[in-house]
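Collaborator request, handled under Task 6.
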Amino acid sequence: MSRSVFDSTLSQHIVMSDIDALNAVTKFPSRYSYDPLPVGATDPITITPIGSPFTFANRTGIRAEAVITGGTMSAIAHQRQAANGPASTSVPAAAGTVLLSPGDQLTITYSVAPSVTVVPHA
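Structure tokens returned to the collaborator:
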């Protein structure tokens, strides 16, 4: 399992060992971003929301569940297939589980950060 960087221009993952990831993400943040989940991940991974609203994109290429617990949230929005699909929003926001297909985005608006555990489906 290799960590990857997402290239938004080419819409593909690049294995970090194949490029100078630190340089790419630092110099070109609008093009490259670190994948919070490694491509091909199968173990649960805890994601720490940084700043509200916090957006997580499932770029693993497989379905995953986002388990949201705790925190004080005002909205949870689920965008199917990034900007191309319909969005659903939970207001008032409640802790729970959201199934994320590849390319889906989850946006959490909060005043106290929740805990988010992403469980990839192999």
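The cover message to the collaborator said: "The chain has a mean pLDDT of 76. Residues 21-27 form the longest helix (7 residues). Please let us know whether this matches your experimental observations."
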